[in-house]
Amino acid sequence: MTPSEQRVALSDLLAARREAILAAWRQLDSSDPEQKTGLALTLGQFLDHIPAILDTYGHKLRSRRGGAAARAADVEKEEDGVKHGLHRWQQGYRLKELISECGNLQICVFEELANIFAGHPELEHATLLEAHRQLLHLINDIISGSAAQYERMQQAEAGGRVRDLMSALADVDEIEQRRAKLLHQAVHDLNSDVLGVSMAATQISRTGMAETERVASAAFLQRAVQGLGSMLGELMDLARLEAGQENREIAGFDAGSLISDLCDINQPFAKERSLFLKAKGPAQLPVEGDAEKVRRVAKNLVLNALKYTDSGGVTVSWGEEKENWWLMVKDTGPGMLTEAGTSMADGLQEATASAKESDEKSAALKGEASHVLLPKDTATPTRPAQHQPGEGIGLSIVKRLCELLDASLEIASSAEAGTTFRVVFPRRYRRHS
Predict the structure, then answer these.
(1) How much helix, strand and coil, in percent to the nearest 5, is found in the chain?
(2) Of 93, 191, 218, 371, which residue is most buried, by most CB within 10 angstroms?
(3) Given this structure, which CATH class describes domain 252-426?
C-alpha cells in the first residue's frame, strides 16, 4: 500500500473501534482520582463533542497534508474543541479535571493505535508516526481551546462583578450628595460606609424636617444600607467559594419538599410586587446532595427572578431525569440582554447551545428527546443591550455552588420570553467524592 492508502486504512480501523475507544476512556476516567465531576454525568453528557472530534481525527489522517480537506478538518477540530471546553465549564468541571480527561483520552487512543499496529504488520512505521503526530495536535487543540474558553468566562465573570460594584458605588455617591444637603440637621458623620448610612437613616427620623422629606430620605438611606449590606454578604460568600473554604456534605433529602417550602416562604414577596409565583413538581423527590447548598442555589435564582420581573411572574418547576434531577426557574422579565461575548450570562447561553447540540445527537441515537434548554434567539434584541443588576456577583455564586455540587447550569433568555435557568443535579453521588 502507498502511504496515502495506509492512512486511509488506519482511519477505517480506528472508526471501527471508536465505540471501544470511548468506552475505555469512560472507564479510565471513572477510575481516575482527579476526576469527580464527570462521575455525575450521563454517558451522553460525558461524551459530549468527543465522538465528533474523533471523527475529525480520522478525516485528518485520510487527508493530504496541507490540502483543502486537511484544512477543513483542522477547522472542525478547533470548533469542536472550543465547544467541548465551553460545555465542560458549564457542567462545572475544574480546569485541572478537563486537562486530565484530555490526557486520559490520549492514552486510550494511543493504546488503540498500538493494538492496531501490532495486528496489522503491513502498516509502516511512518504511518504510526503520522498518527501519533496528529494525536498530539488533537489533544493540544482541545486543551488550548478549552483553556481559552475558561479564561474568557473568568473575564466575563469579573466584568459582571465590576459592573455590580460600580452600581453600588453610584448609590454611595448619591447618598453622599443627600448627606451634604441634610448634614446640618440630620447627621454628624456620614462618610461612605454602611454604618454611617444606617446612623443617618436613624437620625433623619428624629429631626424636625418636613414629614414627607424625612420619610423619603430615611427610606432611601435604609434601602441603600440593605443593598450595600446584601452585596457585602454576597462578596463574602463568593470569596469563600472561590477560596475553597466551603465543602459539600452529601446526605439524603427531599428536594420536592425543600423547593415547595422555599416557594411558600417567598409568596409574600411575590404578592408585594403583584407577581405570581407558581410551583410545579412532585411533592416528594428523594435525592442525595447538600440540601443547604441546593437551597441557596434555588433561593438565589427565585429571588433574582422576582426582583427583576416587572409584570407576570415566576414559575418554579422540578423533576427527575434518569440519573439526575433538575430545577427550573422561569420568569416573564425583560431577559438578560448583553453585548455578545462580554458577560457570564452570554457565555452560559453559548454553553447551553453547545450542550443542546451534543445532547440531541446522543438522544437521537437512542430514539429519545433532548431535555437541555433550547436557547432563545437574542440575535435581534428589541431593546438596547444592558447589564442586569445582580448578574455579576449573584450569578457567579450560583455557578460556583453548581461546580461544588457537580451540577450543570443552563440558561435561555430573550426580551420576548424572559429568562429560564435550569440546573441539573446528580441524583446520587459516589461516596468517595
Answers:
(1) 65, 10, 25
(2) 93
(3) alpha beta
